Amino acid sequence: MSATAYCLDGVTGSGVRTRRGMVAVDPRRIPLGSSIHVRGLKGVRDGIYAATDTGAAVKDNEIDVFIPDCSAAKAFGRQRVQVRIVRRGPINGESVAANR
Description:
1 helix
């Protein structure tokens, strides 16, 4: 997959506040609320990320990693990464925020 980064502070597409350890995804590819393992990142740690956000520019095989520092998010650029779904999110459309 392709990974980019964003730094916009606020409420995500699933209703939770942005924080480290979350990514924006295309919910047709990776359901919101899923836990994914991302490998091959440069500048941030590989590991488990929560799919809690969406974005107009996040399509198909792309993820957007939340990085609170905007200069670091910009420096992140576009990276090729490996993504594996560890736990699939709610399929019935229930809010991720309700599950916290």
